[in-house]
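Entry 14. Ran structure prediction on the chain below.
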Amino acid sequence: MPLMTPMVQAAIALLALPKLEVAALLRDRLATNPWLVEQPELPFPSPVPIVCELIVTKGLSGYTVCLYDQGLPTIGVKVLTVEDRASKAACRLHNEAVWLVKGLACRRKLLQMVAETVVQLQAEFLEQGRAGLKPLTLRQVAEQIKLHPSTVSRVTANKTLFIEQGSRGEM
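Output, structure tokens:
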């Protein structure tokens, strides 16, 4: 079994959480970890419900999946100075901050991969509605993107996507 690095542990812990819980966790960490810094949020032009994690839009070449981070604080990590390196507590908090940011990046990447695969496999549903809906298992999605089904399960649990036509669906 591969070694569970802190980044992998952080990403796995973040995967199962719905967006609003991730936002609460980030706000808590921003308040308690001096090495995390909130960065300005870029506005998204669409009136999408805040709980949605992904937006599916139809373009000329098919459907596109975009991550919707509105409502999540955008965080970065402050630079660890030479003086701070002498403190074990400062180094520990700095490392936690680094792994949290890396875990969030991994979460975003996995969400994007799984959502794109689901949209690709369910394109007929997006075009035709219920009539085009096909049975789809976690295993099928996992095989398509070479992940374990339990990872796909974590990625899809408690996640909502917004479809351009205005409907909202759970992954």
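The two ends are 29 Å apart (CA to CA). Will compare against last week's run tomorrow.
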